[in-house]
UniProtKB/TrEMBL annotation:
Biological source species: Clydaea vesicula
Name this polypeptide is given: Uncharacterized protein
InterPro entries: AlkB-like_sf
Organism ancestry: Eukaryota, Fungi, Fungi incertae sedis, Chytridiomycota, Chytridiomycota incertae sedis
Length: 333
Protein backbone atom coordinates (compact mmCIF):
# COMPACT_ATOMS: atom_id res chain seq x y z
CA UNK A 1 0.00 0.00 0.00
CA UNK A 2 1.48 3.31 -1.11
CA UNK A 3 2.86 5.44 1.77
CA UNK A 4 2.27 2.58 4.23
CA UNK A 5 4.62 -0.13 2.92
CA UNK A 6 8.41 -0.44 2.87
CA UNK A 7 11.19 -2.90 1.95
CA UNK A 8 9.46 -3.98 -1.26
CA UNK A 9 11.04 -4.68 -4.64
CA UNK A 10 10.58 -3.07 -8.04
CA UNK A 11 8.37 -5.95 -9.17
CA UNK A 12 5.62 -5.04 -6.67
CA UNK A 13 2.55 -3.11 -7.83
CA UNK A 14 1.46 -0.38 -5.44
CA UNK A 15 -2.10 0.56 -4.57
CA UNK A 16 -3.37 3.58 -2.67
CA UNK A 17 -5.46 3.44 0.48
CA UNK A 18 -8.39 4.60 -1.64
CA UNK A 19 -8.05 1.57 -3.92
CA UNK A 20 -8.79 -0.84 -1.07
CA UNK A 21 -12.47 -1.92 -0.95
CA UNK A 22 -14.16 -1.30 2.41
CA UNK A 23 -16.96 -3.41 3.87
CA UNK A 24 -19.59 -0.92 5.09
CA UNK A 25 -21.63 -2.47 7.92
CA UNK A 26 -21.97 -5.72 5.91
CA UNK A 27 -24.47 -4.05 3.57
CA UNK A 28 -22.24 -2.54 0.87
CA UNK A 29 -18.77 -2.27 -0.64
CA UNK A 30 -17.09 1.15 -0.83
CA UNK A 31 -14.09 1.96 -3.02
CA UNK A 32 -13.04 5.55 -2.44
CA UNK A 33 -10.79 5.72 -5.48
CA UNK A 34 -12.36 3.33 -7.99
CA UNK A 35 -11.62 5.30 -11.15
CA UNK A 36 -8.43 6.95 -12.38
CA UNK A 37 -8.07 10.50 -11.05
CA UNK A 38 -6.19 11.47 -14.20
CA UNK A 39 -9.31 10.89 -16.34
CA UNK A 40 -12.03 13.57 -16.45
CA UNK A 41 -15.01 11.21 -16.50
CA UNK A 42 -17.44 14.07 -15.91
CA UNK A 43 -16.36 15.81 -19.10
CA UNK A 44 -16.17 12.56 -21.09
CA UNK A 45 -19.69 11.52 -20.12
CA UNK A 46 -21.14 14.97 -20.67
CA UNK A 47 -19.65 15.10 -24.17
CA UNK A 48 -20.62 11.52 -25.03
CA UNK A 49 -24.34 11.96 -24.34
CA UNK A 50 -27.14 14.47 -24.82
CA UNK A 51 -28.54 14.77 -21.30
CA UNK A 52 -32.31 15.15 -21.19
CA UNK A 53 -34.92 17.10 -19.26
CA UNK A 54 -36.06 15.16 -16.24
CA UNK A 55 -39.10 15.01 -13.99
CA UNK A 56 -39.74 12.72 -11.04
CA UNK A 57 -42.24 9.88 -11.53
CA UNK A 58 -45.27 11.23 -13.41
CA UNK A 59 -44.96 14.77 -12.02
CA UNK A 60 -45.06 17.59 -14.53
CA UNK A 61 -42.60 19.86 -12.71
CA UNK A 62 -38.98 19.82 -13.84
CA UNK A 63 -36.16 18.68 -11.61
CA UNK A 64 -32.82 20.35 -10.85
CA UNK A 65 -31.26 17.40 -12.66
CA UNK A 66 -30.66 16.30 -16.23
CA UNK A 67 -30.27 12.65 -17.04
CA UNK A 68 -30.15 9.83 -19.53
CA UNK A 69 -30.74 6.07 -19.50
CA UNK A 70 -27.92 4.00 -20.98
CA UNK A 71 -27.60 0.36 -21.99
CA UNK A 72 -26.32 -1.73 -24.89
CA UNK A 73 -28.53 -1.04 -27.94
CA UNK A 74 -28.29 -3.27 -31.02
CA UNK A 75 -29.96 -2.26 -34.28
CA UNK A 76 -30.37 -4.78 -37.10
CA UNK A 77 -30.83 -4.31 -40.86
CA UNK A 78 -34.63 -4.13 -40.39
CA UNK A 79 -34.32 -1.14 -38.03
CA UNK A 80 -35.32 -3.28 -35.06
CA UNK A 81 -33.56 -2.15 -31.88
CA UNK A 82 -32.84 -4.61 -29.08
CA UNK A 83 -32.07 -3.26 -25.62
CA UNK A 84 -32.56 -3.77 -21.89
CA UNK A 85 -35.39 -1.92 -20.20
CA UNK A 86 -35.24 -0.73 -16.61
CA UNK A 87 -38.23 1.26 -15.42
CA UNK A 88 -37.97 3.32 -12.26
CA UNK A 89 -39.47 6.60 -11.06
CA UNK A 90 -37.27 8.85 -13.20
CA UNK A 91 -39.11 10.27 -16.22
CA UNK A 92 -37.06 11.60 -19.14
CA UNK A 93 -38.17 13.36 -22.31
CA UNK A 94 -35.80 11.46 -24.60
CA UNK A 95 -34.89 7.86 -25.50
CA UNK A 96 -32.39 5.44 -24.06
CA UNK A 97 -28.90 5.71 -25.59
CA UNK A 98 -26.38 2.98 -26.21
CA UNK A 99 -23.24 2.66 -24.13
CA UNK A 100 -20.30 4.64 -25.51
CA UNK A 101 -16.62 3.88 -24.98
CA UNK A 102 -16.46 5.72 -21.65
CA UNK A 103 -19.57 3.88 -20.40
CA UNK A 104 -18.15 0.50 -21.33
CA UNK A 105 -14.96 1.35 -19.44
CA UNK A 106 -16.87 2.33 -16.28
CA UNK A 107 -19.31 -0.59 -16.39
CA UNK A 108 -16.54 -3.10 -17.08
CA UNK A 109 -14.55 -1.93 -14.05
CA UNK A 110 -17.58 -2.16 -11.79
CA UNK A 111 -18.54 -5.62 -13.05
CA UNK A 112 -14.97 -6.70 -12.43
CA UNK A 113 -15.04 -5.78 -8.76
CA UNK A 114 -18.60 -7.10 -8.37
CA UNK A 115 -17.46 -10.53 -9.54
CA UNK A 116 -14.61 -10.48 -7.02
CA UNK A 117 -16.63 -9.60 -3.93
CA UNK A 118 -20.22 -10.77 -4.53
CA UNK A 119 -21.47 -14.32 -4.93
CA UNK A 120 -23.10 -15.04 -8.30
CA UNK A 121 -23.90 -11.41 -9.16
CA UNK A 122 -26.07 -10.55 -12.17
CA UNK A 123 -24.17 -8.55 -14.78
CA UNK A 124 -24.62 -4.80 -14.36
CA UNK A 125 -25.97 -3.71 -17.75
CA UNK A 126 -28.04 -0.53 -17.40
CA UNK A 127 -27.12 2.96 -16.18
CA UNK A 128 -28.87 6.16 -15.22
CA UNK A 129 -26.50 9.12 -15.52
CA UNK A 130 -27.64 12.38 -13.95
CA UNK A 131 -26.05 15.81 -13.67
CA UNK A 132 -27.03 17.46 -10.40
CA UNK A 133 -27.23 21.18 -11.11
CA UNK A 134 -27.23 23.78 -8.35
CA UNK A 135 -28.37 27.34 -8.92
CA UNK A 136 -29.21 30.60 -7.21
CA UNK A 137 -32.49 32.43 -7.86
CA UNK A 138 -33.78 35.79 -6.73
CA UNK A 139 -37.34 36.44 -5.57
CA UNK A 140 -39.46 39.56 -5.91
CA UNK A 141 -37.69 41.07 -2.91
CA UNK A 142 -34.34 40.29 -4.57
CA UNK A 143 -33.51 37.88 -1.78
CA UNK A 144 -31.22 35.13 -3.03
CA UNK A 145 -32.26 31.50 -2.68
CA UNK A 146 -30.05 28.46 -3.18
CA UNK A 147 -31.58 25.68 -5.27
CA UNK A 148 -29.74 22.42 -4.70
CA UNK A 149 -30.35 19.16 -6.52
CA UNK A 150 -31.36 16.42 -4.11
CA UNK A 151 -33.31 13.17 -4.08
CA UNK A 152 -35.53 12.33 -1.10
CA UNK A 153 -35.43 9.02 0.76
CA UNK A 154 -36.50 6.07 -1.37
CA UNK A 155 -35.66 2.54 -2.43
CA UNK A 156 -34.89 1.84 -6.07
CA UNK A 157 -37.72 0.17 -7.94
CA UNK A 158 -36.97 -3.46 -8.71
CA UNK A 159 -39.67 -4.59 -11.16
CA UNK A 160 -37.08 -5.08 -13.92
CA UNK A 161 -34.26 -6.32 -11.67
CA UNK A 162 -33.25 -9.93 -10.93
CA UNK A 163 -33.05 -11.14 -7.33
CA UNK A 164 -29.24 -11.35 -7.52
CA UNK A 165 -28.95 -7.85 -8.93
CA UNK A 166 -26.67 -5.10 -7.65
CA UNK A 167 -26.82 -1.31 -7.58
CA UNK A 168 -23.61 0.66 -8.15
CA UNK A 169 -23.37 4.32 -7.16
CA UNK A 170 -20.52 5.91 -9.12
CA UNK A 171 -19.66 9.57 -8.56
CA UNK A 172 -17.84 12.09 -10.72
CA UNK A 173 -17.41 15.85 -10.28
CA UNK A 174 -16.74 18.67 -12.70
CA UNK A 175 -13.21 20.04 -12.89
CA UNK A 176 -14.32 23.11 -10.93
CA UNK A 177 -13.98 21.00 -7.78
CA UNK A 178 -10.22 21.15 -8.15
CA UNK A 179 -10.11 24.70 -9.57
CA UNK A 180 -11.91 26.38 -6.69
CA UNK A 181 -10.40 27.32 -3.36
CA UNK A 182 -10.89 23.89 -1.79
CA UNK A 183 -8.44 21.71 0.07
CA UNK A 184 -8.22 18.12 1.21
CA UNK A 185 -9.57 17.51 4.68
CA UNK A 186 -6.91 16.92 7.35
CA UNK A 187 -9.07 14.12 8.79
CA UNK A 188 -10.11 12.52 5.49
CA UNK A 189 -7.73 12.78 2.56
CA UNK A 190 -10.47 11.92 0.05
CA UNK A 191 -12.79 14.72 1.18
CA UNK A 192 -12.62 18.30 -0.10
CA UNK A 193 -13.30 21.28 2.14
CA UNK A 194 -14.15 24.95 1.86
CA UNK A 195 -13.18 26.48 5.18
CA UNK A 196 -14.61 23.96 7.67
CA UNK A 197 -17.33 22.41 5.50
CA UNK A 198 -17.22 19.60 2.96
CA UNK A 199 -18.16 20.59 -0.59
CA UNK A 200 -19.09 16.99 -1.47
CA UNK A 201 -22.50 15.34 -1.66
CA UNK A 202 -23.45 12.53 0.72
CA UNK A 203 -25.56 9.39 0.34
CA UNK A 204 -27.57 8.73 3.49
CA UNK A 205 -29.05 5.30 4.29
CA UNK A 206 -31.77 4.71 6.88
CA UNK A 207 -33.15 1.37 8.02
CA UNK A 208 -36.86 0.97 7.34
CA UNK A 209 -39.16 0.78 10.34
CA UNK A 210 -40.27 -2.72 9.37
CA UNK A 211 -36.75 -4.06 9.98
CA UNK A 212 -35.66 -1.92 12.93
CA UNK A 213 -36.13 -4.86 15.32
CA UNK A 214 -33.58 -6.98 13.46
CA UNK A 215 -30.29 -7.16 15.32
CA UNK A 216 -26.92 -6.52 13.78
CA UNK A 217 -28.08 -3.94 11.25
CA UNK A 218 -26.87 -0.37 11.42
CA UNK A 219 -29.90 1.89 11.78
CA UNK A 220 -28.41 4.76 9.81
CA UNK A 221 -25.16 5.52 8.02
CA UNK A 222 -23.80 8.00 5.51
CA UNK A 223 -21.38 7.62 2.62
CA UNK A 224 -19.46 10.65 1.38
CA UNK A 225 -19.56 10.55 -2.41
CA UNK A 226 -15.90 11.15 -3.13
CA UNK A 227 -14.68 12.00 -6.65
CA UNK A 228 -14.38 8.83 -8.78
CA UNK A 229 -15.73 6.62 -6.00
CA UNK A 230 -17.98 3.54 -6.06
CA UNK A 231 -20.51 2.28 -3.52
CA UNK A 232 -21.90 -1.12 -4.46
CA UNK A 233 -24.91 -2.73 -2.76
CA UNK A 234 -27.01 -5.88 -3.24
CA UNK A 235 -30.78 -5.63 -3.61
CA UNK A 236 -31.18 -6.86 -0.02
CA UNK A 237 -29.71 -3.54 1.14
CA UNK A 238 -32.06 -1.65 -1.16
CA UNK A 239 -34.94 -3.62 0.36
CA UNK A 240 -34.00 -2.98 4.00
CA UNK A 241 -32.86 0.63 3.68
CA UNK A 242 -33.97 3.81 1.98
CA UNK A 243 -31.30 6.10 0.58
CA UNK A 244 -31.23 9.85 0.08
CA UNK A 245 -28.98 12.22 -1.85
CA UNK A 246 -27.89 15.03 0.51
CA UNK A 247 -26.02 18.00 -1.02
CA UNK A 248 -23.38 19.97 0.85
CA UNK A 249 -24.67 22.57 3.29
CA UNK A 250 -22.40 25.21 1.76
CA UNK A 251 -23.70 27.95 -0.59
CA UNK A 252 -24.19 26.81 -4.18
CA UNK A 253 -21.29 28.92 -5.46
CA UNK A 254 -18.96 26.80 -3.32
CA UNK A 255 -20.35 23.42 -4.45
CA UNK A 256 -19.05 21.59 -7.55
CA UNK A 257 -21.44 20.07 -10.07
CA UNK A 258 -21.82 16.32 -9.54
CA UNK A 259 -22.56 13.59 -12.05
CA UNK A 260 -24.17 10.55 -10.46
CA UNK A 261 -23.77 7.39 -12.51
CA UNK A 262 -25.96 4.62 -11.09
CA UNK A 263 -25.50 1.22 -12.74
CA UNK A 264 -28.12 -1.47 -12.21
CA UNK A 265 -29.11 -4.89 -13.49
CA UNK A 266 -31.98 -5.29 -15.96
CA UNK A 267 -33.53 -8.68 -16.65
CA UNK A 268 -36.13 -7.20 -19.02
CA UNK A 269 -35.45 -7.56 -22.74
CA UNK A 270 -37.17 -5.11 -25.07
CA UNK A 271 -37.32 -4.26 -28.76
CA UNK A 272 -38.46 -1.22 -30.68
CA UNK A 273 -39.88 -1.70 -34.17
CA UNK A 274 -42.37 0.04 -36.46
CA UNK A 275 -42.77 2.93 -34.03
CA UNK A 276 -43.62 0.80 -30.98
CA UNK A 277 -41.77 -0.67 -28.01
CA UNK A 278 -42.30 -4.26 -26.89
CA UNK A 279 -41.29 -6.25 -23.82
CA UNK A 280 -40.00 -9.68 -24.81
CA UNK A 281 -39.63 -13.00 -23.04
CA UNK A 282 -38.06 -15.49 -25.38
CA UNK A 283 -39.85 -15.13 -28.72
CA UNK A 284 -43.02 -13.71 -27.14
CA UNK A 285 -43.28 -9.92 -27.20
CA UNK A 286 -45.97 -7.71 -25.63
CA UNK A 287 -46.71 -4.13 -26.67
CA UNK A 288 -45.57 -1.48 -24.19
CA UNK A 289 -48.81 0.46 -23.83
CA UNK A 290 -49.54 3.84 -22.32
CA UNK A 291 -50.69 3.59 -18.69
CA UNK A 292 -54.26 4.25 -17.62
CA UNK A 293 -55.06 6.22 -14.47
CA UNK A 294 -55.61 2.91 -12.69
CA UNK A 295 -52.24 1.61 -13.92
CA UNK A 296 -50.53 4.69 -12.48
CA UNK A 297 -52.38 4.41 -9.17
CA UNK A 298 -51.61 0.70 -8.85
CA UNK A 299 -47.91 1.03 -9.67
CA UNK A 300 -47.47 4.00 -7.33
CA UNK A 301 -49.06 1.97 -4.53
CA UNK A 302 -46.41 -0.71 -5.12
CA UNK A 303 -43.74 1.99 -5.25
CA UNK A 304 -44.92 3.22 -1.85
CA UNK A 305 -44.77 -0.31 -0.45
CA UNK A 306 -41.24 -0.75 -1.79
CA UNK A 307 -40.21 2.58 -0.23
CA UNK A 308 -41.65 1.84 3.21
CA UNK A 309 -41.34 -1.93 3.80
CA UNK A 310 -38.81 -4.70 3.40
CA UNK A 311 -41.25 -6.84 1.45
CA UNK A 312 -40.10 -8.45 -1.78
CA UNK A 313 -42.49 -6.70 -4.14
CA UNK A 314 -44.30 -8.81 -6.71
CA UNK A 315 -45.00 -6.38 -9.55
CA UNK A 316 -46.44 -9.05 -11.81
CA UNK A 317 -46.63 -8.36 -15.53
CA UNK A 318 -46.21 -4.61 -16.08
CA UNK A 319 -46.67 -3.72 -19.76
CA UNK A 320 -46.40 0.06 -19.46
CA UNK A 321 -43.92 2.68 -18.30
CA UNK A 322 -44.07 6.06 -16.55
CA UNK A 323 -40.99 7.13 -18.50
CA UNK A 324 -41.87 8.86 -21.78
CA UNK A 325 -38.49 7.97 -23.23
CA UNK A 326 -39.23 4.24 -23.08
CA UNK A 327 -41.74 4.63 -25.91
CA UNK A 328 -39.18 6.25 -28.22
CA UNK A 329 -36.72 4.34 -30.43
CA UNK A 330 -33.43 3.98 -28.54
CA UNK A 331 -30.34 5.61 -29.98
CA UNK A 332 -27.95 2.92 -31.20
CA UNK A 333 -25.12 5.23 -32.28
Amino acid sequence: VEKLSFNYGDDVSLVTVGDIPLNIHNVGLFVRNMFDYDVDYFDKLKNAHQFQVLTESNKTSLSHRKGIYLTNVEKDDNNICKFNLLRCSTNLDGPTETFKKVDLEIVSKVNGIANLYFENPYTLNHALAQIYENSKTFGANEKAKDNKARIKSHSDKTKDMPSNGLIAFCTFYSAELFERAVKNSRDDFHDYMYKNGSVLTKLSFKLKKTVEEQTGLKKQFTITLYPNSLFLIPLSTNRMYTHEIVPSGLPVDKIPTRLGYVIRCSKTKAIHKNGNAYICEGKDCVLLKRPTEKDVADIKALYFEENTTDNVINYGAVNFSLNNGDYQPPNSS
